[in-house]
Amino acid sequence: MTPPIRVLIVDDEPLARERLKELLADESDMAVIGECRDGVEAIAAIGRERPDLVLLDVQMPEPDGFGVLRAVAQEQQPAVIFVTAHRDFAVQAFEANALDYLLKPFDRERFRLSLARVRERRRTGAMELDSDLIERLESLSQRLPPTSEPYATKLVTKVGWRMRFLRVEDIDYLEAEGNYVSVHLGKQSYLARETMNALEAKLDPKDFVRAHRSLIVRVDRIEEVEPLPPGEFVLTLRDGTKLTSGRSYRARLQRALDLPS
Description:
about 260 residues; alpha/beta; Rossmann fold; 2 domains; five-stranded parallel sheet; five-stranded antiparallel sheet; 15 strands; about 30% helix; Response regulator transcription factor; CheY-like_superfamily; DNA binding; phosphoprotein
């Protein structure tokens, strides 16, 4: 006998989670293994429970649905049905990327169509997400309207197979490192599975400044600035760390640090 499809529900709205549980109760081959209220809970639950399917809200606090997928290791990626309240471009983008979505409010018939697609993917052994999904979703997430909490207070990073949640207020600077971003807190550093552009969009520009294509610095950590002839700056942080800015980011630094032109 085929085991049931193990489903994780992720939505920050309690009524939405209840609605999904009610609909799944009528599906004999589906088993709800848990529910999560935000992205942090979702990342932990996916790593711990390894669900076959996640019903994933797009917009949630810290991180959103796209951030959840970027934080989950590729080999742990489940099948996903996105839940969204956004019409027009969002729906078109999901269709173009061959991903399924549920547009709130949705009816039972539309929900069952999504489940039928999941069953077909399971039958053909194609439950995993595409390897290039993260990049495609990131381009879409940057077009969505902001949530009520536009700037993150935590970032998700990797420590081996585990995930660590860092407080943004503790971060000194972020530096690109291959396909990851190295997040520095004092003498410690952790890898975040996101691009510099995605992380910059999450950080409050009052607190952080992009100083180079590969560098974002917390403003209040900068203790000294030394101009260099080509238009660059050497930034000395409180702990003595020295970082070099890029020429094209000179004006940003001047504004952020109130430097003369």
